[in-house]
């Protein structure tokens, strides 16, 4: 696939790194020549220096025969104009744009179609991060929750702790513990090493477990791996930007929410906008302010400012002063592995959320949803089986007959709105939504090929 990526910031760079290893023809456009030079030295891609929305730059980047244009510059307006140029001048088939401004998003139904601003798919990082954080609040104790198949199937990452009934037992005991609930453990991370789970594998305390199940059974399966935490009721948010205010707005209906915002004008605005959230103007790393607001009684402290270091420091302080859990927003991917799992319970990455959403539109075959896992090392994919036994390499075959890459596991299937856990004798049918876990994303092209029907299939 010939793909043009506009913007070599963190998202554009990470997307290019994800796609360049998958036999794609990638061209990266940016107005920073030094950044482009560095990336060209590291990766097999083409770099074009210029203004992303310029017809000349787009022509030089190969827009005349590109299959896909992804506009992820730091400017919403540049992204929109670039999509307009690609549509009007080059008839680019698929155009994706990152749009951050809430004013544009509120009017997206009127704005973003071929007669006005021709964008096929909109990616809004703030909305994606808000959704991720809300899911983590909804499922206390989870490290990551990803929904598939119209939210009927979920993939969940949790840590196993002493007190979980399955800890110290083989995976095969899960069915004995929960005879009426079907689920599947697809990965175990133990001491930074990935273990492919077998029925005889013993779950140990400290294991990072990835499991898949029908969404309504998430808490039941989690309760086998750790003592279920009580629902979070008292939340403190540091930072009243778009993400902070969005999370507060969602949570204030069912939780007691306090927010700390440095900017006095922004704090006053939020106090009016958020009817049930208590907004304070101050520094979230001010120890006396945290004491005054009873940090020791807070269930979750969520640091959501635009400064990674400030988020990390305020969260560490909040944890030391008694907050039960702390969650931080981290922009730099390199920081995530450094901070998560110690004093900081969960690190949330806008880049990872954005990449997951983008990959769902970029993958070949009928791949409709992608979740980036373990900070980009692993992936979960929702693919739809199309064709028949002659044109498809999966339809009509049992799961045990499908030749999967070594790191791949078919976890679950949605068929006619019914969730089916993937067992060896289950036969794939036309129209099935198949959820595949990939421990190593280098095998993505093989999965794409599996789910691409061909009239020439032999």
Topology (elements, then pairings):
Elements: E1 2-6, H1 10-20, E2 25-30, H2 33-42, E3 46-49, H3 55-61, E4 68-71, H4 76-90, E5 94-98, H5 102-106, H6 108-111, E6 121-123, H7 125-138, E7 142-148, E8 153-159, H8 173-177, E9 183-190, E10 193-195, E11 208-214, H9 218-225, E12 234-238, H10 242-251, E13 256-261, H11 264-273, E14 278-281, H12 287-292, E15 300-303, H13 308-320, E16 325-329, H14 333-339, E17 346-348, H15 350-362, E18 367-373, E19 378-384, E20 408-415, E21 418-421, E22 433-438, H16 444-450
Parallel strand pairs: 1-2, 1-4, 2-3, 4-5, 5-6, 12-13, 12-15, 13-14, 15-16, 16-17
Antiparallel strand pairs: 7-8, 8-11, 9-10, 9-11, 18-19, 19-22, 20-21, 20-22
Helix pairs in contact: 1-15, 7-10, 7-15
Organism: Conservatibacter flavescens
GO molecular function, one term: potassium ion transmembrane transporter activity
Domain RCK C-terminal: 143-227, 368-453
What does this structure look like?
This is Trk system potassium uptake protein TrkA. This protein is α/β, with parallel strands linked by helices and 458 residues long. It folds into four domains: 2-123, Rossmann fold (3-Layer(aba) Sandwich); 129-225, Alpha-Beta Plaits (2-Layer Sandwich), CATH 3.30.70.1450; 234-352, Rossmann fold (3-Layer(aba) Sandwich); 360-450, Alpha-Beta Plaits. The chain is built from 16 helices and 22 strands. The strands form four sheets. The chain has a six-stranded parallel β-sheet, sandwiched between helices. Strands 14-13-12-15-16-17 form a six-stranded parallel β-sheet, with helices on both faces. Strand 7 and strand 8 form a beta hairpin. The radius of gyration is 23 Å and the shape is globular. The two termini are 23 Å apart.
């Amino acid at each position: 696939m010939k793909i043009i990526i506009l913007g070599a910031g963190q998202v554009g760079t990470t997307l290019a790194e994800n796609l360049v290893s998958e036999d794609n023809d990638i061209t990266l456009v940016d107005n920073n020549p030094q950044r482009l030079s560095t990336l060209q030295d590291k990766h097999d891609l083409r770099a074009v220096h210029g203004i992303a929305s310029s017809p000349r730059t787009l022509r030089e980047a190969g827009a005349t025969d590109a299959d896909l244009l992804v506009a992820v510059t730091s400017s919403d307006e540049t992204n929109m104009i670039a999509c307009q140029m690609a549509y009007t001048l080059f008839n680019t088939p698929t155009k994706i744009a990152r749009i951050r401004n809430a004013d544009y998003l509120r009017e997206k139904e009127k704005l973003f179609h071929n007669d006005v601003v021709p964008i096929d798919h909109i990616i809004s990082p703030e909305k994606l991060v808000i959704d991720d954080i809300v899911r983590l609040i909804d499922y206390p104790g989870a490290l990551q929750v990803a929904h598939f198949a119209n939210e009927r199937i979920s993939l969940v990452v949790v840590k196993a702790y002493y007190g979980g009934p399955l800890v110290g037992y083989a995976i095969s005991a899960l069915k004995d513990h929960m005879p009426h609930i079907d689920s599947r453990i697809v990965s175990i991370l133990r001491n930074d090493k990935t273990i492919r789970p077998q029925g005889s594998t013993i779950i140990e305390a400290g294991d990072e477990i990835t499991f898949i199940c029908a969404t309504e059974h998430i808490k039941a399966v989690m309760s086998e791996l750790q003592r279920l935490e009580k629902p979070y009721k008292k939340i403190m948010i540091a930072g009243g930007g778009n993400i902070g205010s969005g999370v507060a707005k969602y949570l204030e209906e069912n939780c007691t929410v306090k927010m700390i915002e440095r900017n006095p004008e922004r704090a006053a605005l939020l106090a009016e906008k958020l009817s049930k959230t208590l907004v304070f103007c101050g520094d979230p790393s001010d120890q006396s302010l945290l004491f005054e607001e009873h940090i020791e009684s807070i269930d979750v402290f969520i640091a959501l400012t635009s400064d990674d270091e400030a988020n990390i420091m305020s969260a560490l302080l909040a944890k030391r002063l008694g907050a039960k859990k702390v969650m931080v927003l981290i922009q730099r991917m390199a920081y995530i592995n450094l901070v998560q799992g110690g004093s900081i319970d969960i690190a949330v990455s806008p880049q990872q959320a954005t990449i997951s959403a983008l990959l769902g539109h970029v993958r070949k075959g009928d791949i409709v949803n992608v979740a980036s896992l373990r900070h980009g090392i692993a992936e979960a994919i929702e693919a739809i089986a199309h064709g028949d036994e002659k044109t498809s390499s999966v339809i009509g075959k049992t799961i045990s007959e499908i030749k999967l890459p070594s790191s791949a596991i078919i976890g679950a299937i949605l068929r006619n709105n019914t969730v089916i856990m993937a067992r060896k004798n289950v036969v794939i049918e036309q129209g099935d939504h198949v959820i595949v876990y990939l421990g190593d994303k280098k095998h993505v092209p093989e999965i794409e090929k599996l789910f691409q029907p061909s009239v020439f299939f032999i």
